[in-house]
Amino acid sequence: MIDIQDILCVLEVAKEKCITNAAANMFLTQSAVSQKIARTEKELGMTLFERTNRSVELTEDGMAFAKQGSHLVEEWEQFLAEMKRRTLKKEQFLTIGMHALSIYSDLPELIADFTAVYPNWKINLSTHSDSFKSIQNGKTDIFFVFTNTENLTDECALSQISLKEDTLCILLHEADVLASKETVETEDLAGYHLISWNTELMESFPEELGITLTVCEDSFLPSLISKPGSFTLTPKSRCEKILQQYSNLRAVPFKSKGIIPVLTLYLVYNSNRITAENHPFLQYAVDYYKQQEEK
């Protein structure tokens, strides 16, 4: 049976007058396009193209097929657009997990832009401390996380999309001696007090530096840096908004072993519940950060 892809192949070859170019435009092999045309001609019992050494031209039957086929493709596209509009009218729900400090990032703007374009989508925000477990047990649908770990979902049977890269900064009190430095290196933090929501972060610092740790919810981190000698780590992209609210803090690029660590913002989701190719929010997030990168 002839399907819409067969019709599209005939129309593309008719436009290009070349099977090779048509195949490239449709991301198909030349043999696949030739087979579709041959199958269509056999089923209809007519020849659609006159083939020469240099090009292919529509026959009289081919012209009639192309004319009717163009109408069918147009109607098919209108049908798909109407079905999409009907889907968009249905109320949809999405729970997004993120760390509380994400309020200082561009994620609120991303979510606001998305809901303006897709007003039927209702977004719930969550700040579960165990982001991967919250997706696995269905408490969140997706989660945004900054990390320098690749393949972070290997052990969790989840999927991830890389959105953007960022560097790491140290947040310090303005009176701290390190606040005036161009960069802060690991060794500079000897005897300092780390404030973090993540206990594993301590493993990044050699034990001989004598760094101590206070664990708290990340939403409180900036407010706890009330005097010199305390610090926290955060992606550079969050610093501008944090410093607008906490004018007593300073952000300094952080170096570990002479290198400024590069972080990646990942969107993590459960592929058993969400299909990335067809999900409006996932596609919108990818396009949003791609446009930011191009600016």
UniProtKB/TrEMBL annotation:
Keywords for this protein: DNA-binding, Transcription, Transcription regulation
One GO cellular component term noted in the UniProt record for this chain: protein-DNA complex
Pfam family, one: LysR_substrate
HTH lysR-type domain ranges (all copies): 2-59
Sections of the chain in a coiled coil: none
Keyword Transcription: yes
GO molecular function: DNA binding; DNA-binding transcription factor activity
InterPro entries to which the protein is assigned, alphabetical: LysR_HTH_N, LysR_subst-bd, WH-like_DNA-bd_sf, WH_DNA-bd_sf
Protein's UniProt keywords contain Transcription regulation: yes
Homology family: Belongs to the LysR transcriptional regulatory family.
Name under which the protein is recorded: LysR family transcriptional regulator
Species of origin: Anaerotruncus colihominis
